[in-house]
Structures are given as C-alpha cells and as structure tokens.
Amino acid sequence: MNPRLYSFVGGKAGEWEVISMKAAAGEPMAAVERLNVIQGLVVSLPAHAKWALRGATSNARYTTAVEKAMLVAKQAAIGRPEAARAALIPIRKSTAWWDLPQDERRKIFEERSHHNKTGMKYLPEIARRLHHCRDLNQAEPFDFLTWFDYAPANAQAFEDLVGELRRSDEWKYVDRETDIRLAR
User: Is the residue at 11 inside a domain?
Assistant: First the structure.
C-alpha cells in the first residue's frame, strides 16, 4: 500500500460529522452526513457512501527551501487530540492556471498572493496537509484536496486564513471549490 494515498469518503458513516458543506465556487457536491478519512485508495464506494475523493501527498511544488524549512519547523501534526474541528476543501483550478508555466504559477502563488506567508501566520494552531489529485486519474473532480485540523478555540483563525486566501490573486484561477466543515 502506498502510504501517501488518501481517500475521503462521504456518506452516512465515518469518524467526522459534517457540520456544513457548501460550494464556494462551481458546482456543488452531493451533501453527506459524515466523512471517513482512509489512508489508502478506496476503489469502489461502500454502500453507505455518496462519493469518494482521492489524493496523494507529494513534494512541496511552489515552495522554496527556506519556506519549506520554516513550514516544517512550525507545522503541527495532523490528528492532534485537541484538533476536534477539521475542514476538507477540494479545489479545482482553471485551464488558464495549468496553461501557465511553472515559474508564472509560482509568481502568482507566492510573490503576488503570498500563499505560504499567509499560511505561516496561522501555524501551529491550524495544521494542514495537501493531497494532489490531478495526476491520479483524469476522472478525479478536483486538482487538490486540502485537509485542515484545529482546536475549536481556533475556529475564527481558520475563517481568517480561508478568507485571506480566497481574496488573493491565486483564487481568481479556482473554478470549483467546496468547503466541508467537520467535527468529531
């Protein structure tokens, strides 16, 4: 089994209760009551499930060595006992984004949008793990699955983080985004 593969299965069963789910951009996903996060690849849907999203953790693609070292030094582990709140935010970027060369995407990502700097302000209170979907299968409906977890006391900080990112130049290239908030 590849330990970098994850499946997020939405349905009537799972560790996480879905407390809200909305389309922030593009078409909505089918509403579900619960979410199960499974390390590994779920190929066929369980009977209780409406959908499964799959992604793989990977190398940091738009991060310099200095930025990566700072993130690693400050990042909290996913799954901390106090992190009883989470968010799964699947994102698909437009064809215009993917048509840009890597260096242009980096400029938009960090030099204009300050994605890493923005995220750093909220560490270690908010932990995050990015899953890449785009290269797994052409049928995957999103390019990225971002998983965040945090303590209930940091819920407003999470709102601030998401708000800052959505106002950035980078978000002009997002054509589908679903915001799924969770509690356990």
Answer: no
